[in-house]
Specification:
single chain; 171 residues; two-stranded antiparallel ribbon; globular
Length: 171
Amino acid sequence: GDFVDREKYSDTIQGSLATSLSAVPGDRVSKGFSRLDKDVTDIHVGGFLTTALEAAAKAKNHSYFLGRYGSPCLLSTGFSDSCISTFISNFGARAFRRPLLAAEISRYMALYTDLKATDQISGIEAVIAAILIAPQFLFQMETEGTLVGGKTDLYQITPYEVASRVALSLE
């Protein structure tokens, strides 16, 4: 898959978090179109990780963000597992540009559960950072469809993947 460009990345997180992308290498411009470089380097990974951690640190204390992607329960103390699952589903769908698979929700719930014994807010922060550094967020991926013609590497793209392509191509 292709990286989403800085503008699209920023649109997903900056709408409510005002996070800088200064740590992420700049977009490459070709024939009037911008996109992130296809070659992923340690500079890209470090930049996205820094940005994800910064956004997650802001998000965990940001009532608009938590209320938008979760539910009123995230604005109180003592979060229930169903409340966290709702947050993961809603924020993950926004970030991945499609509903999360049950296995993805389970993986992020396990991350939250591992950290909530120490601090529930740290658990939420870790989930947000993990979603923002996930390949499904950073790349425009097309791997969820049905295999075509018995091939192992050719998929019929899903309606969400079509919508994602259209949305990411709009200015």
